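User: I'm new to structure prediction. If I give you an amino acid sequence, what do you actually give back? Let's try with this one:
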Amino acid sequence: MTLHRTLSLLGAAAVAFVATGCDKETGGITTPTPPRAYYRYVNAVPDTSGLDFRFVDTLDDSQPWANVLFRQFTPYQATPGGARHVKIFTNASTYNFNQDVAKQVVLDATLNLEVGKYYTIVHVGNARGAATRLVVIEDVFPTPAAGSIAVRTINAAVTQSPLDVYIQADGTTPFSTPAAARAVPALTSGTVGVTPYVTMAARPQTPTTSTYRFLANPAGVTTTPAYADINTPVLGAAPLNSSGAVGGVQYGGSVLTAVVFPGAVAGSKAASPAANLTPTVMLLVDRNPPRAP
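Assistant: Good question. You get back a string of structure tokens that encode the predicted 3D arrangement of the chain. For your 293 residues, that looks like this:
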């Protein structure tokens, strides 16, 4: 009985000690997020399909991206800065999960990403013959005035250069207005093939079909295009949510990038669907409009 009472008293004391410790707890331990660089990956390789993008130097905040198809792109992702070792592989699902194919390294490179900066990483060139490369573009976002948007152009159609790029209101006759960007060369470095941002009025939100038309054509050609007309009326009416508007041509404050993609190489995995054979322009949202106060 004495032993039993002694153990009971010790147990009660332990409970009291734990309870007292809990009463003095003021909060959990927080770990501050270290400074990061921010990047997004764009697949503009026209002769293969899904690609896997992976940082292989560290796992810390190094989100891998699997099966990024031709003309697809990722959202911005935070990652440690500095010299980063990246490898890009062929995605196995494109080739019936053949592991020999999945092991193929399409590209092996080291990228220098500075903490606090944003980057667009564009993968260009042909995979056949190991002729692809990554072009790292530093993204410095402007602040458009109220009611305006900012748009720049990236010419990732490296076999179709130079290009004139037109941004026209819906219903406008193609090439009837001056080009927004003239003789944009192929993308070869962080500045060559990338235009400065230009500002223009946001399109009206009523009617909701009001948009801009983006076209690209060989420099100086204002008649029937020498190759397929590149145009994509996209990002017109953007939905509202609790945070404000999603970036688009109808919402002032939006910052956008028009990427000119090449046509896919006939007979390659990138040529499916068939629409990929035609060059096109696609819009990336660089920055959403600011929230309303």
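You can read the tokens as a compact description of the fold. Here is one thing that stands out. Residues 141-293 form one domain.
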